[in-house]
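TICKET: design request
STATUS: open
ATTACHED STRUCTURE:
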């Protein structure tokens, strides 16, 4: 069978930041990068910074572009750069984010059912990169991430993914619960992978429009999201360790979905 070609639905990664590949610092510089087309991962603002003239403009632009703003101690800013950051640092994404609606439309237009991974608070860059690598190899249409609480997609993530993030669309959404409802309204089943499930992964139909939901390294999938999923599945654990690494679980679940899809295709 020929390899399925993923539709081209997003622009290439943005140019590197003029003041550092992953970091822009200083109030005016951050304002300008927020006005540009560059993808900004998040803004770090010194906790007690209040009276700087340009700060309100930074906050307004960040809100308009749906860029998360984190108030952090000055020590954290100093760990990012020892230069004069003026209490504000922008972390630049190494990729351009895609529209989830465009991803779904492009999959249908290309003649196949969409297959996506929703990652609930997966924060470890190595896990995220490994998931992206497996997903790209499997022909997954996109990764879906929350605006807050996920791994930072900088050069480390790009490297860990072995370059997969240069080819795999990533969608950043404000609220995963709302996104799950929107997917279901468009006919996409959401199947949660959790060790708490009764059904095994191999007992569930994973063909058709599908989003696999995977949870954080610490405490799995949030209960609110589990309740909204269409089905819950688990992997069989035969050993003494109670759970798998999230990147390993993601790879197994993704390729089971791929196997089922290949078996449903008529030569």
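STATUS: resolved
RESOLUTION: sequence designed for all positions
ATTACHED SEQUENCE:
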């Amino acid at each position: 069978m020929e390899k399925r070609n993923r539709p081209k639905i997003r622009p290439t990664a943005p140019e590197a930041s003029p003041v550092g590949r992953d970091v822009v610092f200083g109030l005016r510089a951050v304002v300008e990068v927020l006005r540009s087309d560059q993808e900004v991962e998040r803004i770090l603002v010194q906790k007690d910074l209040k009276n700087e003239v340009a700060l309100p403009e930074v906050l307004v632009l960040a809100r308009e572009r749906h860029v998360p703003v984190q108030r952090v101690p000055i020590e954290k800013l100093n760990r990012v750069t020892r230069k004069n950051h003026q209490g504000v640092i922008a972390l630049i994404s190494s990729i351009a984010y895609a529209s989830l609606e465009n991803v779904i439309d492009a999959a249908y237009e290309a003649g196949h059912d969409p297959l996506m991974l929703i990652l609930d608070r997966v924060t470890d860059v190595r896990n995220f990169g490994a998931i992206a690598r497996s997903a790209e190899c499997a022909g997954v249409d996109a990764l879906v991430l929350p605006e807050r609480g996920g791994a930072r997609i900088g050069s480390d993530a790009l490297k860990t993914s072995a370059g997969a993030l240069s080819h795999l669309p990533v969608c950043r959404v404000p609220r995963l619960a709302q996104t799950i409802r929107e997917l279901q309204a468009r006919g996409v089943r959401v199947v949660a992978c959790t060790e708490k499930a009764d059904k095994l992964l191999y007992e569930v139909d994973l063909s058709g429009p599908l989003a696999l939901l995977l949870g954080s390294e610490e405490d799995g999938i949030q209960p609110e999201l589990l309740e909204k999923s269409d089905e819950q599945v688990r992997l069989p654990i035969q050993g003494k360790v109670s759970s798998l690494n999230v990147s390993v679980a993601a790879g197994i679940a993704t390729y089971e979905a791929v196997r089922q899809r290949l078996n449903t295709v008529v030569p």
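CLOSING REMARK: The chain has two domains: 23-92, 100-264. The two ends are 8 Å apart (CA to CA).
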